[in-house]
Every structure is written in C-alpha cells, then in structure tokens.
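Lecture 7, part B: from sequences to assemblies.

Below are the input chains for today's worked example.
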Amino acid sequence: MGFLSFSKEKLRLARLNRQLRSEPRPHGLAELARCYLALGDAGSAEDVLRFGEKLFKDSEELAKVRQQIRGDELERAIADAREAVKTNPSGLTYLTLAEALREAGRGDQCLATLREAAERFAGDSAVLTQLGELRYRRFLESFAVTDGRAAQALFEQSVAAEPIALRARFRLAELFWRVGAFGHAAACIAELMKHEPSHERGALLRDALAARGATAAQAAEEDLFSLYSSVEECTALAAALPYGPAEDDANGPSSLLGDAKTEVERIAAETHAREAMYVDAQGTVFASGCSSQLLETVNGLAPVSQRAARGMELGAPSRLVVEGRDGTLLMEMKKGALIALLLPRKAPMDGAAVSARDALERLGSRS
Amino acid sequence: MLDVLKELKERVGIRGALVMSDDGVVVASDLCDGLQPDSVAALASAAIVQAARATSRLGLGPAERVTLSARFGRLVFIPLEGLLLVAVTEPGLALDLTMLEIAGPALRIRELARLDSRS
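Predicted structure of the full complex, as structure tokens:
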C-alpha cells in the first residue's frame, strides 16, 4: 500500500471509529479493530477492542479479535525468544521461550525446550526448578505417576545442584503433601523453614504437617510409588493444600462500611494489628490504637518510598513492608492516601495486605 | 559476589541486583539497562535508613527485609551484616516465590562477606 493510500485508509478508519463510538455495534467494532491490525496499528486496535468489550462483554466477535491479538503477541514473543536463545543462549532465554510456548498452548514444544535447557545447562538450578514446575502443573491435571515422579526428580536435582534452591524445596514439600507423603513433606519443609522462617505458606504447611503428627523420620516408611499410583488410580490428590481458596474464603465479605475510623478499627481487629491508621489524600489521620511513633514513622517512610520507586522508574509505590525480627509494618498506598498496620511477627501478610488494600479502595471511593 | 548477582539476575522475574556497604558504597552490581548503580545505592541508602529508624522506633527489632511494591516493579532490600542486597524484580509475581529465589543468593553473599572479613 502506497503512502497516500495508507493515509487515506487511516482517515477512513478514523471516521468510522468516530461513527462507531456514537453508535456502537459489536460486529462493526470487531471489523474496525481488524482493519487497524491489518494496518499495523495495534494501539488503535486495542483502544477499539477495550471500548467494545466494556459495552458488549459477551460478544463472540470481539472475543475472536482479542484471541487473534493475543495469538499475534504470543507468536511475536516466541519469535523474539527463539532469536534470544540463538544469539544469547542461557538458562533464562530458554526459560523465557518455554514460558511463551506454554502460554501459546504448545505444551510439547515447551517441554522439549526445557529438556534441551536442562541438558545444555545441567546443574542450572533455576532451569531445573522451572522444568519441575511445569511437570508439577501437568501432574495436577493428569495425576499421572510419570508426571509426578518427573517433577519430584527435577526438584531434587535442582536442590542437589544448589542446596539453597528454596523454591524447589517448597514445591517439593507441596508435591509430597499432595500425594500423601507427609513424612517426606515434613523433611522438606523443615529444611526450607531453616533458611526462610518467615515464609508464609511454608509456615502454614509446616503447621498442617505438625497437626497431622507428621515427622521427617516417617519418610523412611513411605512408599512413594504406591502413593503416586494411588493418586493416579483415584484421579484425585491425597490432600488439599492448607492455603489457597480456603484462605480467601476465611477473609470473607467485609462488614458494612462505617466511617473511616470505624473502618480502621475493623481492619485492626481483622488483621490483629496492634496499631492501625488511615491517612486520606488530604492528610487527615484516622487511627485505631495509634501511637505518635507510628505517625512519625509513616510520615518518614511515605516520601522515601515515593522517591525510591519513582527514582528507579517503577511508578507510584503501592505497598511497603518492613519486616523486623519482632513484628512487621505494612503500608498500603494509593493516590496520596495510605493505610498503615503494625502487625505481630507471624501475622499472615497476604491476608492483611488484601484487607488493607480493599479498605483503601473503599475509603478512597467515598472521599 | 558479582557471580552470585549474575546468577540471581538469571532467575525468572529478577531484573537486577546490587550489593552495597552500609555507608552507601556499591560493592558489586548487575542491574538491568537504565538503572545506574550509584543512583540505586543512594535511593536504597535513604530507604533503609528510614526503615531502620522505623523498626527501632516501633519496637520491631532489627530490620530483616524491606519490600517496596510499585506499579512497574518491586524492590527488595535485605540487610546482610554490614552489607545491603537490593534486588529489582518484576511486578505481579508471587511474592513468596520471588523471596525464595532471592533468599538463597542472599545467604551466599552473607557467607562471602563473612569470609572477606576474616581474611
């Protein structure tokens, strides 16, 4: 297409765009997005698509265009990743390619890439862990003994290559728990918690194992092959993890929103915070059991967080967590407002952060 | 120490890292393009000083880790016996898994620092 024809086409599409914005139709918007894509204008296509998706959430036409864009993006990502593997082969470039293939639904190619990476970078703990995670994910769908044992072997190789491959140890503990090898799980978790005692999910798993009376000594009596076979026969895992959706249910729907002070008191009680405060965008403070030290601390940390995040071009800061030996300070920040919670040492951080973020959103929407 | 940082940067989700002394001097760095070690060290120094004041003022004991999440990334600061490890990570990753990725190299850096101080 010559330059003049290209410009004419863009003008035509711009007119059509304006028309469709005032009289939107899903088929028209889908066609318009496709035309922009054909012209190589992915930005305009995305704008049109988002506009259409807001109005016509269930439109199949728009969904097809979305799939097409996603497919194109994945193909580009795969091509770029293949190039990177060719020009700069490393564990990371292989893993990036494998992840792109997995997202594109090409599981076999993904596995082949990871196998090649594991051979080429034998002893690369990160590659082995990622390969293990892939087999672990397959095991959770297939329940096949081969997938489970392959995942286990990869995680174990990762740990052998790098004794402080803590992510591999954590996944190994999860895998053993899920097949009912509680003694093996207890051994893995003990090793993990030695190095990372504040790991939240690790602590939950450790406590769940202790509640079952599981100890590392029991591992010697466990027949792993039988346990995996049992999972395959029943097409079901032996035990569900002691976190995940169940933990989200425990947070539950929040109580009716009162004023800001009531909300702060509610958050403090829900998260077991010994002090809590909310500072709105105008600087007004609403507090529950709050000391002047907390206020002073927050006044010092908020601007420093801004400078650090923006100075490193990471955008506006949203959360600061300062973990001390005897407790944790959590600050959720949004558009000049913040919630600060002073939490005990072993408080579940994810739950507290979600509660604080939800409260910040609600309070912000009311002001 | 640079080898440890290079290895850390190879982990999925880790954009770069540096190690600095308590007085803000960069000891080793392997950061992604666009980040200058001295600028990162200066910002990190200010942040960790405030964090140390916070933990002292609030009775939280010595600071063990500081995590700052922002729209386009995360910063993790880990004090290590006279040194500070600063890691820049992607946003949106499971935080606990990212911490596990960083914890191993952090332990190795601490061991290297101990060996250096003995020799």
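Note for the exam: Chain B touches chain A through 46 residues (CB under 8 Å). Keep this in mind when comparing with the next example.
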